[in-house]
Specification:
Length: 116
């Protein structure tokens, strides 16, 4: 999978055989160093509004408009310290869920939990 989802490089389905002994440790957000914005869910607005600029970005081809949080300009996340720590009080859900993401099957009927 290409970098279609901003921070994900190589997404594979979670499987017992491959990931049985894996674990996640710590809160290193260095993976988001080059991300300047992330999607925002409506339920996050009250928490995110204190720390971030919320914008509504659209796709002219589809006419779809979605809320997003601005994290910086260019390819730099200004809310990330040099050591990979998050500098704001609230960490967006899109960032917190990493390295997990759901992938929809081609027929759209089911979702598969994947890991980067």
């Amino acid at each position: 999978m290409t970098k279609q989802l901003l921070i994900y490089e190589k997404v594979v389905p979670v499987s017992q055989e491959r990931h049985l002994d894996w674990h996640i440790q710590g809160k290193d957000y260095a993976f988001s160093r080059s991300v300047n914005s992330v999607p925002l869910m409506a339920t996050e607005f009250p928490f995110a509004a204190n720390d971030y600029t919320i914008v509504f970005a659209g796709n002219q081809a589809t006419g779809e408009i979605l809320p997003a949080i601005l994290l910086g300009m260019g390819e730099k996340n200004l809310y990330l310290s040099e050591t990979g720590e998050w500098k704001a009080k609230y960490v967006p859900a899109f960032v917190r869920r990493y390295p997990f993401v759901f992938a929809r099957h081609d027929d759209g009927s089911t979702l598969t939990l994947c890991i980067d």
